[in-house]
Design a protein that fits this description.
Elements lengths: L4 H4 L5 E3 L8 H9 L4 E4 L5 H14 L4 E6 L8 H18 L17 H10 L3 E5 L5 H8 L4 E6 L2 H9 L4 E5 L5 E2 L14 H11 L4 E4 L5 H9 L4 E4 L13 H7 L7 E4 L7 E4 L2 H6 L12 H14 L22 H9 L6
Parallel strand pairs: 1-9, 2-3, 3-4, 4-5, 5-6, 6-8, 8-9
Antiparallel strand pairs: 7-11, 10-11
Helix pairs in contact: 2-3, 3-5, 4-12, 5-6
The protein binds flavin mononucleotide.
Length: 349
């Protein structure tokens, strides 16, 4: 069986999915030390924080790790759309006592840029993964010339072919079960998003590079199924959310351990872009999918103070509770233990 373990320089063909907002270096270190590939999400980090996190990883482990970037196009600010969205949220600001004067405008997530490319050249992470396509050719070339193994996510066959044509080393096929943002970048139509069981074999048949399965993989049986379908590796996110090494918030942990975790949906009302999370009040009352929002990530700025006010009261009503359809299988055990469980599903060579 050909796996991505060799390509990634790790013992196990298991990748801990980068999860911006829910983890930092500690989870990445634990998974890399357990023999998988730990990932550090950079989407919500500034350059200095990224340097510090990578230094922390290198102090704790000599094993390979992945640094992950978003590469969406930063949208122009549209005052009309922004005001309309704040108008929709106004009753909630009143209810939670949020002072409208303090609601910030502007993005909370930065796309890959020349500044980030310079940091990659400086830090030389062994693996770099992208979400929402790839950066412009010149920036991608700068990453490639550091010698990094390059991964990106496809949610359709067309996206997989597009990524292969631009020279990625392996493709992460993200089924619709996946927690967090859809990596979709050639379409905005959520009806094109299909489940891992259907997507994985189609992508494998369409490209020559190795394909890593992600979305809904939270135990050994799902890992075994992915390899049976021809995956060269698996990437699991939600399965690691309750680990002590993750930074998952208290309200998020409570939701994951409740019956609520059985009901997830794709929503765009929290950031402006479709993402899967546990159904909560904002998704139920304003979405889960809605037209006319400020584009990603701008919609999130107006929601952020509601989230903060609700979380201060112990409520996840306005929080991004990003998790996959298998969220109810998530266990509060160490990252090494989750990695062991996933490993036991890998078929013998
Ligand atoms: C809380 C959370 C945050 C996420 N953040 C990112 C991210 O920053 N970058 C990224 O490439 N993928 C992100 N994802 C998506 C994962 O890479 C992956 O597609 C997903 O976790 C797989 O589905 P699963 O959660 O069912 O394992 C996130 C997923 C979750 C659950």
């Amino acid at each position: 069986m050909r796996t991505v373990a060799g390509l990634l320089g790790v013992e196990l063909p298991i990748i801990q999915a980068p999860m911006a907002g829910a983890q930092g270096s500690a989870l990445a270190i634990a998974v890399s030390e357990a023999g998988g590939l730990g990932s550090l999400p950079a989407a919500m980090l500034g350059v200095e924080a990224l340097r510090a996190e990578v230094a922390a990883i290198r102090r704790a482990t000599r094993r390979p790790f992945n640094v992950n970037f978003f590469c969406h196009t930063a949208p122009p600010f549209d005052a009309g759309r922004d005001a309309a969205w704040r108008g929709v949220l106004a009753p909630y600001y009143d209810e939670l006592g949020v002072d409208r004067g303090t609601v910030p405008a502007g993005p909370a997530r930065a796309p890959f840029s020349a500044e980030f490319a310079a940091v990659v050249e400086e830090l030389r992470p062994p693996v770099v993964s992208f979400h929402f396509g790839l950066p412009d050719a010149d920036l991608l070339e700068r990453v490639r010339s550091t010698g990094a193994t390059i991964l990106s996510t496809a949610t359709t066959v067309e996206e997989a072919r597009w990524l292969e044509a631009r020279g990625v080393d392996a493709i992460i096929a993200q089924g619709a079960e996946a927690g967090g943002h859809r990596g979709m970048f050639l379409t905005e139509d959520v009806t094109t998003q299909i489940g891992t069981l259907a997507l994985l074999p189609q992508v494998i048949d369409a490209v020559r590079v190795p394909v890593i399965a992600t979305g809904g993989i939270a135990d050994a049986r799902a890992v075994a199924a992915a390899f049976l379908l021809g995956a060269a590796g698996v990437q699991a996110g939600t399965a690691y959310l309750l680990c002590p090494e993750a930074t998952t918030s208290r309200v998020f942990r409570t939701a994951l351990q409740s019956e609520a975790a059985r009901h997830t949906a794709l929503t765009n009302v929290i950031t402006g872009r479709p993402a899967r999370g546990i159904m909560n009040r904002i998704m139920r009352e304003l979405g889960p999918l809605r037209e006319g929002l400020p584009p990603f990530p701008l919609a999130g700025a107006a929601v952020a103070p509601l989230r903060a006010a609700a979380e201060a009261r112990g409520s996840g009503d306005f929080s991004p509770l990003w998790s996959g359809q298998n969220a109810s299988r998530c266990r509060a055990v160490s990252a090494a233990e989750v990695t062991r469980e996933l490993t036991s599903g890998i078929p013998p060579a």
